[in-house]
Amino acid sequence: MKNLKGKNAIITGASKGIGKAIAVRLAQNGINLVLAARTQSTLDETVKEIERKSKVKVFGISCDVSRMSDLENLVKVSLEKLGKIDILINNAGVSSQYPFDKQPLEDIERLAHTNYLGYVRLTRLVIGHMIKNEAGAIINMVSGSVLVEPVPRNFLVYSSLKVGLRAFSKGLFWEMRDHGIKVTAIMPGVADTDLTGKLKEITSEQKKRLISSQTIEDAVIFALTVPQNVCPLELAVINQQTPWAKPVIPFKQEHPE
Ligand SMILES: NC(=O)c1ccc[n+]([C@@H]2O[C@H](COP(=O)([O-])OP(=O)(O)OC[C@H]3O[C@@H](n4cnc5c(N)ncnc54)[C@H](OP(=O)(O)O)[C@@H]3O)[C@@H](O)[C@H]2O)c1
Predict the structure, then answer these.
(1) pLDDT band at 199, cuts 50/70/90?
(2) Which CATH number fits domain 8-237: 3.40.50.720, 3.40.1090.10, 2.40.110.10, 3.60.20.40?
(3) What radius of gyration do the chain's Cα atoms show?
(4) pLDDT in tens, 15-37
(5) How far apart are CA 184 and CA 172, in angstroms?
């Protein structure tokens, strides 16, 4: 897409963190937006903030990506509001850190339904529309944790689902390229968002190992603006100081008893 102005995008997990940063940046580039997240109030605040800063159309649709009916509604409302979907950014995700033997089954299922099925199902719902248009860009927010082999301890389920998502994204590209659809997996290093627990106890040395959400926005803009015959299949954006043998930031997650 040479010119992003007037294009239409759906972004999931767009009320906070990385998704919000991408939404603000796409709006600055003239892209109309449907933003999805579960909590309507934070979504509304994000919509207002974007409306204050940009002239694009922007709508906030409450949607739990782990629920099929919510995803169907998201696509239906997006088509009603925007008429066409050019870009899908699958970003909504939850983090969970557990030794595997202590991880509740409900937590495993929540991760699978949100971080993997949420992406695959929404893509399935949108793909027919993109095929009909013979154009489209799908960006999946994977994770830098997939670059570590074996996947990090205590992040086994989260990271292995992201490995699956990476494989899905690459395979989807091969299958969709003759339809003019581009698929990009972005694999960011650790960024300071709600997902990483705000990293309260972080030392100044550890802080140097984070990346800013701007780096991820830049990767999204790059993926959307490369020449027509190019697809950035995978973009790993990690901190220069990423230590491979141990966690970037050893943060602890509180769990309800
Ligand atoms: N932060 C990092 O260091 C990092 C690194 C690598 C990859 N990532 C990936 O980047 C993505 C975004 O992470 P983030 O750090 O920006 O997270 P975040 O700050 O916690 O924001 C998550 C966003 O997703 C929404 N969300 C969560 N569960 C949802 C659900 N079931 N349905 C719809 N929306 C949902 C949240 O809103 P509601 O709670 O209101 O639904 C919020 O808008 C995730 O896929 C994550 O795995 C993050």
Answers:
(1) low
(2) 3.40.50.720
(3) 18
(4) 999 999 999 999 999 999 999 99
(5) 10
Nearest to 123 by CA among 175, 158, 160, 159: 175
Q: Tens digits of per-residue pLDDT, 141-165?
A: 999 999 988 888 889 999 999 999 9
Ligand 1 site residues (CB inside 6 A) read 12-19, 36-39, 42, 63-66, 91-94, 114, 141, 143-144, 188, 190-191, 193-196
Take residue 195 and report the two structure tokens written for it: 């997902």
pLDDT digits (tens, 9 = 90+) for 244-255: 666 666 656 666
Burial class (CB in 10 A: 0-12, 13-18, 19+), 80: exposed
- pTM tops 0.90: yes
Q: How far is the CA of 92 from the centre of ligand 1 (A)?
A: 4
Q: Give 3: exposed, middle or buried? Use CB within 10 Å, 0-12, 13-18, 19+.
A: exposed
- 119 catalytic residue (yes or no): no
How far apart are the C-alpha atoms of 201 and 254, rounded to whole Å?
Answer: 13
Q: With beta carbons less than 8 A apart as the criterion, state whether 192 and 199 touch.
A: yes
Q: Of 122, 112, 102, which Cα lies nearest the Cα of 158?
A: 112
